[in-house]
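Our preliminary data section would be incomplete without showing what the modeling component actually yields. Below, a chain of 238 amino acids is followed by its predicted structure, encoded as tokens that our downstream tools consume directly.
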Amino acid sequence: MKAKIIIPALLALSLAACSQQTNAQTSDEAHGHSHAADGSHFMPGEVKPAMTVGATPTSPEYIQLANNVEIIESVQEAMNSGSATFTHEGYFGPLLFGEELRAYTLRLEPGMFLSEHPHPTESIVYTLSGRYVLCSEGKRKVMEAGSIFHFGSNMPTGWEAPFAEGAEILIFKKKREGDDYDSFVAGIKDMAAGLDVQLKDGEPFYYSQLPADHPAIQFARSKNPDFNAVLETSGPTK
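Predicted structure:
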């Protein structure tokens, strides 16, 4: 009688163990890598320190955790490194270059104005701090810290900085073939030189260059009661 009870019980336990093993294998296959015997991700072996790559004139400091795994611990510190480049569109600072993506920052100084223009590649843009105005097809929206937006390829957009605190934004974009820190900064410097020429030719990059009835100024006044103070100091400083 006992055998009739014990044998089915053992069979049930055996089937349950097989099922658990199969599920674990299936989970590992779906997850893409194996686990240790206790089910954790940690595999026995030597603990290796990550390598810190120092800042250069064209790149911020970053951590090389592993091959093709890079970390920037503070985007704010990276923005203030010597690799940031001033242009009449703002300060551009490189962050990281992946296999297909690149990330960089843009700091908008109070009083800056950039008319709508198309961009050849799409972007996703996150507001790190401050406030600014996003403009597209004549429509305007105040972007604040924590907001994010996307624009598609060849879609005209512009931005304006009517607030005293300016704004800092983080941009993710498809990487150009062969792009790296040196080529990025060189490209920004070339762009800065081109914008200098456009400014001398009369292209507006600051509120002070716009007529008083310009829609950007009207919108700025409606959103910032202290806009006059920004307007008075608006203009090229570099």
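Helices lie at 2-31, 75-79, 181-200, 215-223, 227-233. The first helix runs from residue 2 to 31. Preliminary results of this kind motivate Aim 1 of the renewal.
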